[in-house]
Write a sequence for this structure.
């Protein structure tokens, strides 16, 4: 395994790049403590390595959660180490959740390369995910005064499981009729699956930075709301994003019967029946996407989400 050196400049860069650059050495140090094989899978998932001498298209991920952790600590005037430790912990949990999520969904591509389970096998990928989870808890628990922080992370982990369970169950429910998934249920699912870790990131940075509980709780709430918005954009990208940019498989969410935000919006319009037929037949997801687009024109929220990512 080769850990690629950083090449990005440190000044005048986007905030996500700045935070990623500042966190990478501590993250690499933590990953370097893993079993070498497990560490290689972790480094592969972070986009740092070559596998068996073959270069992989390296894409590190946006680093939204680690940036929130760094910014949470900065916002309360905490020391740099507070933000870094929180960032490493949340990024490890994020990577762990992606590894396991890709196995559950059978997704074969992420960050513009084969998923870890596709490259290394399912068993090894489960193990690598477990190792990242354990490393996150160890990292946080080792920080000075981290009792409250460990609790914050534990609550977020429980919420992640809750959101993932709902997401998986939603896929088994019909598109239309009384058993259909309601927007309120989607909101709760996204708040857990995605919002919990974004909220936890900002809250952990602030907590380790010495902020009072009310500040920590406020950042947690704000991050959770941001996470729901983030999930909606992720859903939009899952249907109309450029796979070369997003690294997501074409129409993967539709194929997996995911009850994503654009689909739920479209199912609340007169095209619902035709859309349900198209999605159930699984023959033409392009036509389904076009129908969702047509119906989505009626939703201000969806129009705005698409305008912002255009
Ligand atoms: C916590 C014990 C425990 C289990 C986890 C697998 C699982 C249960 C939850 C899945 C959570 C999950 C994968 C949510 C998806 C959130 C999401 C929008 C991921 C994509 O995030 P980006 O766009 O990815 O920030 P990058 O690649 O940029 O890092």
């Amino acid at each position: 395994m080769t850990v690629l050196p950083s090449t990005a400049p440190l000044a005048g860069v986007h905030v996500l790049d700045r935070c990623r650059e500042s966190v990478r050495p501590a993250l690499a140090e933590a990953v370097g403590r893993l079993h070498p094989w497990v560490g290689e899978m972790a480094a592969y998932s972070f986009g740092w390595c070559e596998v068996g001498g073959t270069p992989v298209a390296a894409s590190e991920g946006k680093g939204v959660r680690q940036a929130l952790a760094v910014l949470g600590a900065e916002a309360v005037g905490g020391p740099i180490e507070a933000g870094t430790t929180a960032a490493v912990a949340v990024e490890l949990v994020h990577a762990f959740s992606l590894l396991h999520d890709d196995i559950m969904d059978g997704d074969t591509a992420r960050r513009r390369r084969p998923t870890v389970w596709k490259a290394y096998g399912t068993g090894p990928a489960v193990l690598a995910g477990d190792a990242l989870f354990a490393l996150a808890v160890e990292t946080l628990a080792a920080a000075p005064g981290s009792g409250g922080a460990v609790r914050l992370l534990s609550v977020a982990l429980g919420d992640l499981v809750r959101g993932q369970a709902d997401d998986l169950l939603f896929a088994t429910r019909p598109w239309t009729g009384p058993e259909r998934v309601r927007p309120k249920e989607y909101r709760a699912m996204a708040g857990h699956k995605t919002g919990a870790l974004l909220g936890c990131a900002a809250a952990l940075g602030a907590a380790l930075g010495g902020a009072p509980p009310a500040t920590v709780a406020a950042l947690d709430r704000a991050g959770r709301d941001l996470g729901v918005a983030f999930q909606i954009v992720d859903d939009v990208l899952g249907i109309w994003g450029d796979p070369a940019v997003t690294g997501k498989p074409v129409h993967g969410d539709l194929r997996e019967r995911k009850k994503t935000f654009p689909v739920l919006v479209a199912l609340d319009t007169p095209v619902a029946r035709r859309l349900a037929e198209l999605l159930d037949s699984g023959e033409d997801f392009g036509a389904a996407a076009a129908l969702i687009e047509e119906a989505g024109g009626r939703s201000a929220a969806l129009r705005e989400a698409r305008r912002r990512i255009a």
User: Anything to note?
Assistant: The pocket of geranylgeranyl diphosphate is lined by residues 61-62, 64, 97-98, 100-101, 111, 157, 160-161, 164, 193-194, 231, 234 (CB under 6 Å). Residues 1-12 have pLDDT under 50 and may be disordered. Residues 15-309 form a domain with the Farnesyl Diphosphate Synthase fold (CATH 1.10.600.10). Strands lie at 50-51, 54-55, 109-110, 113-114.
